[in-house]
Design brief:
- The chain contains twelve helices and nine strands.
- The chain is an alpha/beta fold and 263 residues long.
- The strands form two sheets. The chain has a six-stranded parallel β-sheet. Strands 1-2-3 form a three-stranded parallel β-sheet.
- The N and C termini lie far apart (35 Å).
Length: 263
């Protein structure tokens, strides 16, 4: 079923070395491709691990140079609001236009690792500019253990972002499986809210979300290379959701979001 019926598009991967690296952890494009081949993952939306600790530069530039020869990698830039000038002297609108001109159609932020407030007074310009172009915004809260979701995810801010920027696709990464009491009310209200399933270990969670809110909210993600694709892949393949929904989650939803970006 995997090879012939589900085209897997991983929305949550990185390349490059982290400041703290697990022994044996892959980090080169070649190594990541070998993992993708093993698990039959056809494509990956990918950012550079350097950005997770250091901020957007020079990781965004390094990303483009390192994946240039790999058409299975889709670039994702890490961004910040530019009140501190960390993005140079460019306006956010100019930077986003440059992104699009260079083929980058997705953005990522690290609210916890970058000590970034998600309130409108801090993020409005960045969020509005991304919304104008319908650029998917991935939010990585740096969750290692599921217990951290209770204090690392600012649910009120997620609510305000989805409410104030309804044309902005918002994707929460690696949120854990103990979030349903906060997640479900948001999924019920906002079509623009999505989660990746890389760490969504919730008994019957995929089935419930597909039935109550629709499979369009779910995206296949792995967290490679820090985490194995085996868990989320098993959840998807052995879940009780219809094959039609598995195909949407596996890759079609991410494809749709990227194709909806306005250049």
């Amino acid at each position: 079923m995997l090879k012939n019926e589900i085209d897997l598009f991983d929305c949550n991967s990185t390349i490059g070395k982290r400041a703290v690296r697990n022994p044996g952890c892959a980090y080169t494009p070649k190594d990541i491709v070998s993992i993708m081949d093993y698990y039959k993952i056809s494509r990956a939306l990918i950012s550079h691990a350097m950005c997770e600790g250091n901020g957007p530069f020079p990781g965004n530039e390094i990303l483009l140079s390192e994946i240039n020869e790999y058409d299975r990698f889709i670039p994702c830039w890490v961004l910040l609001p530019n009140s501190t000038g960390e993005l140079g002297d460019k306006k956010i609108s100019d930077l986003v236009n440059e992104m699009l001109e260079r083929g980058v159609k997705a953005a990522k932020i690290y609210p916890y690792n970058h000590r970034l407030c998600l309130s409108e007074w801090c993020m409005r310009e960045l969020l509005s500019t991304l919304e104008e172009h319908r650029i998917p915004l991935l939010m990585d809260f740096g969750i290692v253990h599921y217990s951290e979701s209770s204090w690392k995810i600012p649910w009120n801010d997620v609510y305000e972002i989805c409410k104030n920027h309804k044309n902005l696709p918002v994707i929460l990464l690696r949120i854990g499986g103990n979030v349903n009491r906060n997640l479900f009310p948001l999924l019920d209200k906002f079509e623009n809210l999505h989660i990746d399933i890389s760490y969504y270990i919730s008994n019957g969670g995929l089935e419930i979300i597909c039935e109550k809110f629709g499979a369009s909210h779910l995206l296949f993600g792995t967290g490679m290379p820090a985490y194995s694709p085996a868990g989320p892949l098993s959840m998807l393949l052995y879940s009780g959701v219809p094959l039609r929904d598995k195909k949407m989650i596996g890759g079609e939803n991410m494809d749709r979001l990227l194709k909806s970006v306005i250049i």
